[in-house]
Design brief:
60s Ribosomal Protein L30, Chain: A; about 170 residues; 9 strands; alpha+beta; single chain
């Protein structure tokens, strides 16, 4: 949707992914899901994903990427970056979300970031924690620079990313 300043607003639902140019503003609402923003400061291109789970448990088509999953969202970012003739190290990334929306009923309402005891363990059932842990892991593995992150806690978040400036605005709920 275009607004009065010739900027285009895109709203991401859970599982959505968008990559584009400097006329875009991307926003989303997060609970236990995570949003990753990537921005190329010289080319003024970038994108955002809103993933729901770290990895797919079962995949019908191994060639089909699904933005609901962090691993697939990363593959989608890498595809767009390659098509733009750029490399991950040229981008600034920011990560948001992974809030425990069910802290009142959870025995462990806060995520303790430990990759080996959460991501690699089938016993960890805290999806918010797993979501918060996998984003930095995947970004660093691919050579991205993480500029900022706001992960975990027990609140929801609204994220607004302006590609023309690289600014990301965050509003937390309680």
């Amino acid at each position: 949707m275009k607004n009065s300043s010739n900027k285009i607003d895109i709203f991401l639902q859970p599982g959505d992914f968008y990559f584009g140019g400097k006329e875009m503003r991307i926003s989303t609402l997060l609970g236990s899901c995570v949003a990753i923003t990537i921005w190329h400061p010289q080319r003024l291109i970038g994108g955002m994903c809103h993933y729901m789970l770290p990895t797919p448990q079962f995949r019908k088509d191994p060639l089909q990427l699904d933005g609901k999953y962090a691993e697939d969202a990363m593959a989608m970012f890498l595809r767009e970056i390659k098509e733009a003739g750029t490399v991950p190290s040229e981008y600034q990334t920011k990560i948001f979300g992974g809030g425990n929306m069910f802290s009142k009923i959870s025995s462990n309402p806060h995520c303790t970031p430990n990759h080996s005891t959460c991501i690699d363990s089938h016993s960890c059932k805290n999806v918010a924690c797993k979501n918060a842990l996998i984003a930095p892991y995947l970004l660093q593995k691919q050579g991205f620079s993480i500029k900022n992150k706001d992960l975990g806690g027990i609140q929801h978040r609204k994220v607004i990313f302006e590609i023309w400036s690289g600014d990301v605005w965050l509003r937390k709920g309680s």
